[in-house]
Design a protein that fits this description.
Oligomer: heterodimer
Number of strands of chain B: 8
Largest interface: A-B, 30 and 37 residues
Strand content of chain A: 5-15%
Strand content of chain B: 35-45%
Radius of gyration of chain A: 22 Å
Largest sheet of chain B: 8 strands, antiparallel
Structural class of chain B: alpha+beta
Shape of chain B: globular
Strand order of the largest sheet of chain B: 1-2-8-7-6-5-4-3
Largest sheet of chain A: 3 strands, antiparallel
Radius of gyration of chain B: 17 Å
Helix content of chain B: 25-40%
Distance between the termini of chain A: 60 Å
Distance between the termini of chain B: 25 Å
Number of helices of chain B: 3
Helix content of chain A: 55-70%
Chain lengths: 106, 159
């Protein structure tokens, strides 16, 4: 299965978990308390986020803390950025054509 | 010539659509003309480094289009679709990459008049699935990366 940032943020529950973890690190139970889905379902989502490199799980005593790692999210904006540049080049050429057209009209 | 008008691309995770917006320092009628005049259209649509061959172009409701992007190695990438509306207020067309047949997007473009003889263009593309949309963006990214390497080559040559 795909394990990258896009897979990680494709699910609304996982997006909500990341939003929650952005503020503070939390125990697995702490995360689960904020969701109406089952505890195993929460664990599954956290596991996917972990495999996608967006969270780390740190054992501390009896507890397991989940911490967000947001440097990976940069990949998303980078991904769109290249597509944006493609359109930018295209529209910059259109600008030149529009400029020529306006010169001719005068 | 660098422009102060920036392109924005919005593609929310998990959705089948994307939006592209851009403003132009030209009146709407001219921006529209650059979309329906084949001589003008070929000058700006093709990606950098590709020859753009406009084979069929009937920019009226019910009309067809087909164009080919040809790279330096002679590889050809064909695209085709049908126009459903063709006015400055609303340009609607289907879009299909022939390398990935059966995956068609619906592209709607609106040109809005702004004060000072300026124009705002908004493209709304809807895909058949999230995977189709992400694939389209990914494909654009690969081209972007290739072009990035080409620029790097130019820089390295200058040493």
């Amino acid at each position: 299965m795909r394990r990258d940032v896009f897979q990680a943020i494709a699910d609304p529950n996982r997006r909500a978990m990341l939003a929650l973890l952005a503020r503070q690190r939390m125990t697995l139970n702490g995360v689960a308390e904020n969701f109406r889905i089952s505890r195993p379902a929460v664990s599954r989502h956290i596991k996917i986020l972990k495999e996608c490199g967006l969270v780390v799980v740190i054992p501390q005593g009896r507890e397991r803390f989940v911490e967000a790692r947001f440097d990976k999210l940069g990949e998303v904006s980078d991904w769109l950025e290249k597509y944006r540049q493609l359109w930018e080049q295209r529209f910059n050429r259109l600008d030149e054509i529009l400029l020529e057209m306006q010169k001719k009209e005068k | 010539m660098p422009s102060n008008n920036k392109v924005t691309v919005t593609a929310e995770p998990g959705k089948q659509e994307l939006f592209i917006t851009r403003e132009f320092d030209a009146p709407r009628e001219l921006v529209f003309k650059a979309h329906i005049d084949p001589k003008l259209y070929v000058q700006w649509l093709g990606p950098h480094g590709y020859e753009m061959i406009l084979e069929t172009f009937e920019p009226v409701s019910g009309g067809k289009y087909r164009y080919v992007h040809k790279d330096k190695e002679g590889n050809e990438y064909g695209f085709h679709g049908t126009f459903h509306a063709m006015s400055p207020e609303s340009m609607i067309q289907t879009f299909e990459f022939e390398g990935y047949p059966g995956h068609v997007s619906l592209d709607c473009m609106v040109l809005e008049e702004l004060p000072g003889n300026r124009t705002k263009a908004t493209i709304h593309s809807v895909f058949q699935s999230v995977a189709d949309r992400d694939g389209m963006i990914q494909n654009g990214m690969e081209k972007g990366v290739t072009e990035g390497y080409e620029r790097l080559d130019d820089i390295l040559k200058s040493f």
